Amino acid sequence: MTARFKARNQVALVGYAQSTIVRHADRPLGSVAVDTARAAIADAGLTVADVDGFTTGSILPSAGGQASVDGVSIVTANWMAEALRVNPRFCAGFQGYGQIPGAVSLAVNAVASGAAEVVVMHRALHNPPKGRYHANPMTQAAGGNQWTAPQGYWGPLSMIALPYNEYLQRYGAKRESMAEVVVEARANGARIPWSFWYDRPITVDDYLDARVISDPICMYDCDIPVDGVAAFVFTTAERARDLPHPPVYVAGYGMGTPKRHRIPTHWPLDDIMGIAAETVARLWEQSGLTVADLDVPQLYDGFSPFIWFWLEALGFCPAGEAHRFVQDGGIRARDGGLPVLSGGGALGNGRMHGVPQMLECYLQLAQRAGDRQLPSVNVGLACHSSPHWGGAVLYSREPL
Q: What's the predicted TM-score (pTM) here?
């Protein structure tokens, strides 16, 4: 298949930094973000003076009416540039779902077009200290919310419980199968020093005994809100050859968004999988690759059912078979299964959106994963957000 992605092999990821992921940081998010960006720039063998571009996605993913304050609960690209005392040639933020692939696409297109030569892309996540993260602040419901919020159908938990229930009933799946997903994520996250869940794996019984909060979603099906920042440095493939770490090339990306108008947070299973098929088709068309080329498929798991949905959307198993696939050890990487959660994901790190997936692709392809290093890895896929409302980015160890 011929790739349509004109920037393939032209842009490389050359350095990173990841802050420690904590429930609540002891200093402002902006302070953590600046230190993390500086560390990423230094890791790439560059200085702040070399940077001429910034991108991010700065949405605060709370449905609880929490305030978005730049440098405190979010960190925009412009705030980062100003804090680092840089007057950038390119500075942009992605708005909408799919924060990571959106921010990556902005960085890649800026470098490939010559709008900037060295771009720092960051993602800063915040856990507001007051009130429940997704508490409903409404005193009255208007618009589409009038048909859902008063009845208790509110926020992301209800949103994901609906298609998860559909899947369980349609395909005869059981929560015991989902336990395999969460236990695998936590086992891998427990090996990573910066993870919130470092050294804290769980068992299948722990999962099955956990409190159900939106049937059938239990506490362990959800990533935990945290304070944390990651930063990545992109530059031209030519310049990357002179930097200290092996470059990792951006091979393509695919994004998608729902086409049908729904009431708030209404995600039917067929909607998810229909748009997922289009997003994945774009991914292969853009890159010229197929699912058979993937060595490090990092699937998004902000809620555990997304793993089942992504496995089927990408073609690792037929529709309705993902629950059997994981139950049979299909994603137990240490036993020879697909390493879809080798970086711990969101369930094994904390609510860092798609950062763990992107970071694991980079570390594995750059041969920087230490004792977690997988053998013979050449192509990585980082999936971000739901398969129908987000996207995915492909990376390669060598130019394709």
A: 0.95
